[in-house]
Design goal:
alpha/beta; Rossmann fold; eight-stranded mixed sheet; 18% strand
Length: 253
Amino acid sequence: MNIISLVNQKGGVGKSTTTMNLGAYLVLHGKKVLLIDMDSQANLTTGLGFRPENLEKNVYQAISGKIRLEDAVVTTSLLNLDLIPATPDLAAATIELVETVDREYVFYNAVKVISSKYDFVLIDCPPSLGLLTVNSLTASDKIIIPIQCEYYALEGLKQLLESINLIKDNLKDNIQILGAVLTMFDKRNQLSHQVVKEVRRHFPGHVFDAIIPRNVALAEAPSFGKTILQYAPDSSGAKAYNYLAKEVIIRTT
């Protein structure tokens, strides 16, 4: 199995969008996939059509030790795509974890138990490098970094890589950066083209060929509780995520 965290300390870079749509296309290619929402904003959860306030079991309860992680699994509208949802209560977990023994590994054992049932586990991390993200990374064996095609993208990526190296040196030395995926690409914008060029020049071999475009359908799909595969499978966004899923499968085989 592959346990992959999607991480970037910046918000609004397409982590949740990439998690849900990469998951959908991995399913299309015959994989069984679990998505885990580790962000208290619960965008992944709502984007898949769930209302956090209606969920009796969630990832916060699992982290708090009130339930087993597997008890929080819900099935989505896409066969073989499961979800462990988040609620705003998850924000409290960061405070509660501070005084916990081996606080960086609370999530590790729970994920290892459940991951054997899936080909891929994708963890949508919060937009910070706090304890929830650290727990996600120590539970993972691989990392995907979504990067928005904007002016400060390269600077943010350098900071993130430094933080990941600290985690590798101190907590988990065998975690692998699977790649960076460029998101919100606007082909009409010269800056977008420049960011793609610069990121690939600075990190050769670590950037996926798939580029996720700015796409109306991608923005609309979560409001209908659907992945892009279900909402607009012929859109440019759908084709980009299909290509990304193929690359991920190749890089993890």
